[in-house]
Amino acid sequence: MRLAIFDFLKMLFLLALAVGVALLIFKGYYGYAVLSFFMLSIFGYRLFAGHRFLYTQLREFSEAVKYRDFTRRFVVKRKHSVEGKLFEAFNQINEVYKNISIDQALQQQYLNKVINMLDTAILFYHVDSGKVMWLNDAFKELFQVPHLGNISGMKKRHAELYEKTMLLKLGKHQMETAHSSKGKIKLFMQSSEFETQEGLFRVVVYQNINEAIDETETKAWHKLLRVLTHEIMNSIGPISSLADTLHHRLENWTSESDLEDLKVGIFTIKRRSEGLLQFAKSYRMINKVDQPQFADVQVVQLFENIYQLLEPTLLQKNIDLDIVIKNTRLVIQADVNLLEQVIINILLNAIEAVKDQPEPYITLSAIEQKDNIQIRIKDNGIGMSPEIQDQIFTPFFTTKKTGTGVGLTLSKQIMLMHHGNLAVDSKEGEGSTFTLQFP
Q1: CA angle, residues 366, 370, 376, in degrees to nearest 5
Q2: Which of 43, 272, 284, 407 has the fewest beta carbons under 10 Å from its own?
Q3: Given a cut of 60, is residue 102 above it in pLDDT?
Q4: pLDDT tens readout for residues 339-367
Q5: Helix ranges restricted to H, 357-406
Q6: String of DSSP letters for 35-48
Q7: For the chain, what is the mean pLDDT?
């Protein structure tokens, strides 16, 4: 307020001088008029120069704000002057923005540090221009790209990866194969978008899942080798022991009764050898599943064929089989023979599981979801423990006295060959649900 009054008085004084000069000229006092005009010129120039100086400082401050340069410090000589008040305000604004800039820089450093620590490759670019805003160290290392100015630059080094990135659906998880510094790898890809005043941006994540797959396969092989070792030792151990006993009997032949013992022993060796051969055939069966011959399969017709096949067994054992399918026109792409083999195998297991229940029932249903089609086989049988559920798809693992442990392994492999999956959900005493999932 005081500054405004002071400026007003300056302007009033300047106006009074101008009026005085005019009055002196009118009265004929030319000498005094020249002197007054000289004073008016000096005072007016100083006032103009002061305002021009403030305007220049304001313009320079605006330029500094525009280019985010908050390092300048304005020297305040007179706190209560217009210049002092303005420079003090400039310094305060500079300080606030400098602190904000420092905080943003620290946050950016923290973010860069955290994201660069991730093993997952991340790419961030502007959708319209393709300008790459940021990519982390994992991306640079995995794809051997030290710098990427524009997303289109990926065409030269990784044309296939560029194509898959451009075709990637937002929010969808996608598994792809790509070439990298580690050779040909499996990638788990996902993208998302967000919009700011500067435009639309996309973030793409590339996760190398080769190591996870290798670890899973290694565990599967360990399970398989453990089962194989167990089965072979169960057969070879008794055969070796019995052969040693028979050899000892031959060396110490004394009577005709030893001949009978030899016959029994040789027959036992023969039977166990045939069992071992059957075991080997089962293993070969797992490795020789034919490639699927894909065709349109009507789910209703598939269910009807399976029901007709199993109807005598179900009636004989007094088991209810409910078929539930809402969309009677539902069609899946599959090999009908292999698919029937999978469903029949699971239904036979379900029949075995419910046979001792007071009111045994099995439900065969088809469910159409947004991203996939599921065929579910649910029973109210004895169920399974979590430990058994972890093992049932392992080759030769079985809880049946007469089982081979091959059926569910084959079923799982067939579903994987259909680019789908086979899963189980079960609780002891509450039954089991097997789910066949198709893409």
Answers
A1: 20
A2: 284
A3: yes
A4: 888 888 888 888 888 888 888 989 999 98
A5: 386-391
A6: HHHHHHHHHHHHHH
A7: 76
Element (DSSP H or E) covering residue 438 = strand 431-438
**Residue 333, helix vs strand vs coil:** strand
| Residue range 253-271, pLDDT digits in tens | 666 666 666 676 676 666 6
- C-beta of residue 142 within 8 angstroms of C-beta of residue 208: yes
Question: Alpha helix locations (H) across 203-335?
Answer: 210-251, 257-287, 299-316
Backbone dihedral angles phi then psi of residue 105, each to the nearest 5 degrees = -65, -40
pTM of the model: 0.45
CATH architecture, domain 119-208: 2-Layer Sandwich (3.30)
Tell whether the model's pLDDT for residue 198 goes beyond 90.
no
Overall fold of domain 295-438:
Heat Shock Protein 90 (3.30.565)
Q: Where are the domains of the chain?
A: 2-102, 119-208, 213-287, 295-438
Query: Looking up tokens 């054992």, which residue turns up?
Result: 317
Residue with tokens 């649910």: 378
Q: Residue 325 corresponds to which amino acid?
A: I
> In angstroms, rounded to a whole number, what is the distance separating the alpha carbons of residues 64 and 161?
43
Higher pLDDT, 435 or 257: 435
Q: Is the dihedral of CA 289, 292, 297, 299 positive or negative?
A: positive
